[in-house]
Amino acid sequence: MTIKRIGSGSPFEEKIGYCRAVVAGGFVHVAGTVGQGDTVEDQCRHALGTIASALRQAGASLSDTVRVTYYLPDASEFEACWPILRDTFGDAPPAATMVQCALIDPKYRIEIELTALAPA
């Protein structure tokens, strides 16, 4: 099996020892991704942009997503992201889970991890 590793250039990838995405076994596995911005909506959009870039490098797109997990320190903020997620995934919504938990830094309000089909 061929494994392709995709980096985003984040300094944390080297510091922590991970990569943004791994293409293996017919899937693109995207690491948990936080976004920048002041609001949960800004961070959600930014994280999805970083994820979309990693998927493009793998030859896939957000429409190939089959599974997504959202991590939020404050579950009450998740509803503000719903329109963004609905617009992002459109007519191809993935299976999804939302987990309330602490993130690596209190400034982060959402982290998104997903799996997409890899190109054949």
Any overview of this molecule?
With 120 residues, this protein is an alpha+beta fold. Helices cover 28% and strands 30% of the residues. The chain has a six-stranded mixed beta sheet with strand order 1-2-3-6-4-5, with helices on one face. The relative contact order is 0.23. The model has no long low-confidence stretch (mean pLDDT 96). This is RidA family protein.
List keywords for this structure.
120 residues, alpha+beta, globular, 60s Ribosomal Protein L30, Chain: A
The ordered H/E elements are EHEEHEHEE
Please indicate the count of domains.
1
CATH homology superfamily = RutC-like
What fraction of residues sit in β-strands?
25-35%
Please give the radius of gyration in angstroms.
14 Å
Largest sheet: 6 strands, mixed
Physical arrangement of strands within the biggest beta sheet: 1-2-3-6-4-5
Shape: globular
Helix count, DSSP H or I runs of 4 or more residues: 3
Look at the structure and give the CATH class: Alpha Beta
- In the predicted model, the low-confidence regions spanning at least 5 consecutive residues are none
- Mean pLDDT over the residues: 96
Broad structural category: alpha+beta
Pfam family, one: Ribonuc_L-PSP
InterPro entries: RutC-like_sf (IPR035959), YjgF/YER057c/UK114 (IPR006175)
Organism: Thalassococcus profundi
Protein name: RidA family protein
